[in-house]
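Lecture notes, part 5. Sequence design as translation. It can be helpful to think of inverse folding as translation between two languages: the language of shapes and the language of residues. The source text, in structure tokens, appears below.
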């Protein structure tokens, strides 16, 4: 009889594989773990993580939750079979650190759409230039709260911005209301 951890589960999507389920960047980030622990071990731990992450994101009916729990237990058994109990927690910690830093593509698209949609609702037509301007404004505008408060995305990647970022667009600096016009 085949291991149930290797069977696709329709509610969770296709069978996990580092190459198909994750972006090339994430697969590359997982590569040191694959080199250190082996592909079967990393896949087993990533399947566990994927099952848990999916269970947190999607509400399920009671029968579906029971099926997901059985699948999680099968993934855990597979991970223990490959790694043993003593190494499982170490690989889990390393893989979780990599996987939690990465955003899934759909989540990124939802984030961009949630920022963009309110500004586009009042417009009949939007061209590429408008989208480029929105991107520019987002990248130079400092975050107002959170752990990145006071820093813009451009600043976080190491770009130095002038006091008035519009000068980067060859626009004149803002006129000060209290300065005399010449």
């Amino acid at each position: 009889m085949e291991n149930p951890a290797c069977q696709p589960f329709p509610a969770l999507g296709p069978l996990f594989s580092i190459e198909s389920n994750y972006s090339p960047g994430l697969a590359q980030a997982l590569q040191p773990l694959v080199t250190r622990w082996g592909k079967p071990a990393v896949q087993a731990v990533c399947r566990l993580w994927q099952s848990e992450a999916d269970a947190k994101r999607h509400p399920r009916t009671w029968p579906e939750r029971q099926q997901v729990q059985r699948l999680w237990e099968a993934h855990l058994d597979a991970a223990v079979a490959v790694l043993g109990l003593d190494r499982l927690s170490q690989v889990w910690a390393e893989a979780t650190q990599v996987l939690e830093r990465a955003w899934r593509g759909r989540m990124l698209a939802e984030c961009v759409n949630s920022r963009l949609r309110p500004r586009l609702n009042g417009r009949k037509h939007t061209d590429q230039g408008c989208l480029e301007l929105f991107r520019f404004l987002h990248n130079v505008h400092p975050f107002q709260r959170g752990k990145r408060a006071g820093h813009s995305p451009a600043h976080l990647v190491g770009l130095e911005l002038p006091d008035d970022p519009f000068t980067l667009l060859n626009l004149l600096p803002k006129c000060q209301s209290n300065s005399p016009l010449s």
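The translated text above is only one of many valid answers, since several sequences can fold into similar shapes. The first helix runs from residue 18 to 21.
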